[in-house]
Amino acid sequence: MDGSIEIKTVPGVQSEPRTKGERTRERLLDLAQEAVIRKGFGATSIEELVEAAGITKSGFFYHFKDKTDLARQLVERYIARNQSFLDDMAERARELSDDPLHSFLIFLKFYAEAMDELVDAHPGCMVATITFQDLIWDGATRAMTIDSVKAWRGLFRAWLEEIAAVYPPKAKVELADLADSLLTLTYGGMTLAKALQDDRAIGKQAMMFRETIRLCFEAR
User: Fold this and answer.
1) pLDDT number for residue 188
2) How many separate domains does the chain show?
3) Which pTM was predicted?
4) Could you tell me if 56 and 74 lie in one domain?
5) Cα–chain-centroid distance for residue 88?
6) How much is the pLDDT for 117?
7) Which of 13, 66, 124, 201 has its CB surrounded by the most CB atoms within 10 Å?
8) Phi, psi (rounded to 5 degrees) for 136
9) What is the pLDDT of residue 54?
């Protein structure tokens, strides 16, 4: 269980869009995501995206009604990719073990290894960007982001409740807070990784969390 595990899915990686129009749209979204994370949504202009993509302004408006529509589609794509990333690892972990604790430990190993690749592949976290720039984004886009965080939290908490039903925790813990810890180390870990220039910062924290789960629930 502690050996090297192949990671099949990384956020932001998907099959190549089939048509030229789809490729252009994906290119614009990629450019927008990187610009928004690095300098903010307000400082990202349609003009710079058009120039970077090598298209006309009318080409931009073929894909997006306006900048607000760009933001909505950008966040929708980000959330969908993250959810697919999470669901894939959770499904594979549960296929490898029917035991809720052991499958969660497998999942956390997958998660740690994926996080080692994530920092180098992505400039930062859209969730943090939207959360801290809340006055710039429209309400619907902010709500989508909040709902995505709650969905992650709900999955982790439900899994921990399964574990606790079989393995009563050996320490006094709130399962909701324990679920939030994994979110905290992920979002905070991105900042730590960038500040310390350590691509493995999140992965190492995820493995520390894995050990905490093992010690908290596993039978002696």
Assistant:
1) 82
2) 2
3) 0.82
4) no
5) 13
6) 78
7) 201
8) -90, -35
9) 94
Q: Is residue 109 part of a domain?
A: yes
Low-confidence ranges of the chain (pLDDT < 50): 1-14
Same domain, yes or no: 60 and 108: no
On whether both 133 and 42 belong to a single domain, the answer is no
If asked whether residues 44 and 147 sit together in one domain, one would say: no
Domain that holds residue 142: 68-217
Query: Distance from CA of residue 216 to its chain's centroid?
Result: 25
Residue from 94, 177, 154, 81 nearest 121 by CA: 81
CATH code assigned at 37: 1.10.10.60
CB 74 within 8 A of CB 56: no
Residues 148 and 202 in one domain: yes
Using one digit for the tens of pLDDT, what is the confidence trace for 131-144? 877 778 888 888 88
What is the C-alpha to C-alpha distance for residues 153 and 137, in angstroms, rounded to an integer?
Answer: 23
* Statement to judge: residues 212 and 119 lie in one domain: yes
